[in-house]
Amino acid sequence: MTRVDRLRTRLTTAGRRLRRVARIARWELGQSTSSYNRRTLAVIAVLVVVVASVGTSAVALGVASPSPNTDIYRVGVADNSPYNAVIDDHASLTARPPDRTALATGEIDLLIGGVRQPAAGPGPRSPTLLVEPADGEKGDAALTAFRSAVQSYNDRAMALEPNRTAAYPVIVELQYIPQSTLGPAAPTNAGNLTGDDTSADDADGGDGTDTDANDTDTNGTISDADGGTADGGGDNTTGTDRTEGDAPPVADGGGGSLLDRALFGGGTSGSPAEIQPPFPFGSLLLAFLFLVPMNFVIQSYGSSILNERISRRGELLLVAPVERLDIVAGKTLPYAAIAVAVTAVIAAAIGGSLLSVAAVVPIAMTFLAATFLGAMFARSFKELTFVTITITVFLTSYVFIPSIFTNVTPIALISPLTLVVMELQGEAVTLGSYLFSTGPFYTSAGVLFLLGTGVYREEDMFSQKPVPLKFLDALDARLSGIRSVGVLTALFLPFVFIAELLAIAVLFVLPIEVSIPLMLVVIAAVEEVAKSVHVFAGFESDRFDRSVRTALLLGIASGIGFFVAEKFTAVAQLVGLPNLQLGEAALQPAGIGITPSTSLLLLAGPLVLHTVTAGVAALGARKNLRWYLVSLVAATAIHAAYNFGVVTLYG
Amino acid sequence: MIEVSGLRKTYGDFAAVVGSEFEIDRGEIFGVVGPNGAGKTTTLKMLAGLIEPTSGTATVAGYDAGDPEMRHQLGFLPEESPLYEDMTARSYLRFFADLYDVPREVASERIESTLDRLDLDYRDRRLGDVSKGMKRKVAIARSLVNDPDVLIYDEPASGLDPLTTNSVLEFTEELREDDKTVIFSAHNLYHVESVCDRVVIMNEGRIIARGSVADIREQYGETTYHVYSDTALDGTDPTADGRHRAVVETMAEVEAIQAAATDAGGSVTDIRTDEPSLESIFLELTGQQMPSPRTARDTEPASEPTTDQHEVEDAP
C-alpha cells in the first residue's frame, strides 16, 4: 500500500468516524429534548416569550417596576424652578405648588425654597438650596428621597456632558500594588495617594465643591452642584489625581458596556464618584452568570449517561462498529455546544470578547468531563445527584473564590474567571496568563474524559461495583505496561496543580509560619497520591506481578513521569506566582525559581526524590490496601522532609 | 465461521468461563445451554467483543472478536435489549443502520422487508407505546439491519407469550435458509432442542457436553420403558388407575415382565418408551434437583412419558 493509499484510507476512516459522531450527537440531541414533555416545553416557551415581551415593553415605557412608592412624596416647588426636572425624573416625588400653609397642614411633605448665595467669611462657600421638610418622619423621608433624586439627576447630567473634562475635572486612576511592597510600616487601611493632592483620609474634599452635590447640612440644605476637586479615593488604594491642566483622558469607567459598568462600578479609572473599592460583586455575578447555566447542562448530560447504563441501552452502541471514544464524543457534543453557545451569549451581553468565551469554555469542559466520569461511577440517580452537586460546589468555589482577588494577588489567576474580570476591566491578558489559568482545566477535562472512556465498557457500565473499585478500574483501564504508569502520572499533574493551588488559595490567609509548613506537607501528600494510586490499581487488578522488582520499576517510571511533567509548572513563573512567599514554598521545591548555581543540584534532587518516594509507595501498593496506606504515609514523610530542607536551605 | 479456543474469563478468583472450545459452521444454529451462572452470557459477550477474555481466542467471520470489522459482520441480541422508547421502530432501525454505514436506500428497503417478515405493525408508533413482543421483534430487526453473517441471540424468546415465541423461533429457523450462522442461548431447553443443530451444555464455566441433540441424547441419556400390567408383580408399583407399573431399561426386561404377568394370570396392558429430553440430560449433567425418569425407578415420575407410546392389548 502506497503512502497515498494509506493517507486516503485514514481520511476515509476519519470521515466515517466523524459521520458516526455527528449521527450519535444528532440522536443524543433528539433524545435529550424528547425526554421533556412537549407540552411542557411549549408552555415554557410561551412563558419566556410573554415575560420577555412584557419586560421589554415595560422597560420601553418606563414602567418596568410599578412601585408602591410612586408619587408618594409631594414636593412644593415653583413652576420655574430647575428642580422641577429633578422631581419629574424621580418616581416617588411629585410636584405641587409651593405653599408654606400646605407644608404646615401636611398637604405637601417638602418645600423647595430659594438658593442662598455664599456669604463672606466662614460657612459654606457654595450656593445652598433651602429645603424645608414637613414635621414628622414622612418629611424626613421626603428629604432623603429628594437628596437621592438630586444626586441621580446630577450623575446623569454629568454623564451626558460632551465636555468630559468639564464634567470630570479630576480623574483618578487606581493602581493596586502588593501589600508586601508597602513595607511593614505601610498603613493597612488608608490610601497612599501619590501626587500633590489630598490624602485618602481627606474624604469629601474640604477645599472644593463636590461634583456630586450631595453634601447636606444638618438643617436640610444641599450644596449646589458645580464641580470641584475629588476626594482621595477608597481604602487600600493608591491613586494619581489629575487636574484640568493635565488634559486627562476621558474617563472610561473601566469597561465598555453598561452592564460592565454595573458589574465593576467605576473600575480602576474615572471620576472619583466612579471609583469604588474592590468588591467581588462583579466576580460573584459572573460566577452565577456563567456557571448557573452549566449546572442545568450537566444535570441533563449526567442523566443521559447514567440512563444508558441503568437501562443497559448503551450495550447496543458498544456492539456497533463505533469506537468508545466516538460514542462519548457524540453524546457529549450537544451539551458542549450548548455550554459554549450559552457562554458566548453571556459574554456578549456583558461586553466580553472571544477571550471571555475562551476563558470559560475550559471550565465548561471540566464541568462536563467531571460529570461524565461521575455518571460512569454512580450506581443510581441518587448517587449522580450527589456527584453533580459535589462538582458544582467544588468547581464553582474553585473558579469563584480566586476571582474575587483579581486585583489583589496573582493567585486569582488560578481561576479562568479572573481572565474575564480582567478583560472587562480593560486589563491586558497575556498568553502566559491564559495558559496558566486554563491549562489545568483543559488538561483535567481531557484526563477525566480519558478515564471515563476507559470504563465505558460492558464490564463496568452495567455492574454495580462500589465507586472506589470503579475508580481503580478507570485507572487500570489506562495501564498497559511500565511506561504507561509514567504517562498516567504525568497526566495527573493538572490535578496536582489544581489541588496545590487551591491549597495555596485556602492557606494563604493563615499566618505564614503556619501556612508554609502545612503547605509543604499537603503538597507532599498530594504528589505522592498522584504518583502511586494507579500503581496500586494496577496491582489490584493483577495487571502487574507483585514482585519487588516490578514495584521498584513502576515507582521509578512514575517518579520520572512526575518529574518531567512537573517542569511544566514553570509556566507559573510567567504570572509571577513564585514571587509570593507561599508560591515559593509551593513551587520552589520542584526546582523552579532558583539560582543557576543551585539549579543542577535541584534538578537532580527532585528526580531522585520522586523516584524514591514513588518506589516506597509502590512497594506497599504491591501487597494490599493497608500496606499501601502505610507506605504512602512514609513516602509523604520523606517528601515533606525534603521540602522543608529545600525551603530552609534556599528559601 | 466461529472458532473459539481456550476461551477463559475470570473476575478475581471467580472463573466465569474456563477454557471453552468449539467451532461453528456457516449456516448452523448453535445452542448454548446451562443453568444460571454457567457462563453462557459471558461466552456470548466475549464473542460479541463486549467482554475482553482473560485468555484464549475467539474469531468471528475471520476477525478477532471485538475487531471493529467483525462488528460489521455481527448482529447481537442481548437478553435484555431496552429500546430508545421515544423513537419509532423505523427511526430506531435507521439510527443503527447509519452507525453500520448502511446506505440509506439499502437500509430503508432492508428495514421494511425485515419488519414485513417479522409481521411487525405500528412502525411509526413510539416504541414506548408498543407491546413487549413488538419490542423484541424490533430488537431482532435491529440485529439484522447490517445484514450480518453471524447472529448472537441471547434468550431471544425470553418473557414472550407462546404465540410470539413461536413466531420468533420460526424466524430464527428461517435465518438458516438465509445462510446465517446463529448462536442461540435459551433457558427453555425445548426451544434449543427444536431449533438448534448442535448444542453445548455449560456448567460452572465449563462445557460439559457437546454435539447434536441426537448425539447428546445417545451419549448421555438412556431410553426407559414404562411397562403397565393389570397384576402386581415383583418390581412394580401401583398406579392411580389401579394398574401396576415397572420402569426398565432394556427390552429383555420388558419381555421378562410380560412373561411374569402371563404366569401370574394377568397381562401387560401398556408399554411406553421414554426417550430422554435435552432437559433431563441437562438436569442430570448439571446436578440439578429434578430427578430423571431413569433414576426414579421406585417413585412416581414427575410427568407421564409422552413419547413413542405403544398400545399392547394384543401383546403376547
UniProtKB/TrEMBL annotation, chain B:
Keywords noted in UniProt: ATP-binding, Nucleotide-binding, Transport
Single GO MF descriptor: ATP hydrolysis activity
InterPro entries in UniProt: AAA+_ATPase, ABC_transporter-like_ATP-bd, ABC_transporter-like_CS, ABC_transporter_ATP-binding, P-loop_NTPase
Residue span, ABC transporter domain: 2-229
Top-level lineage group: Archaea
Entry annotated with the keyword Nucleotide-binding: yes
Annotated stretches, region: Disordered: 285-316
The UniProt record lists the keyword Protease: no
One protein family per Pfam: ABC_tran
Residue stretches of biased makeup (Basic and acidic residues): 307-316
Family named by the database record: Belongs to the ABC transporter superfamily.
Protein name (database record): ABC transporter ATP-binding protein
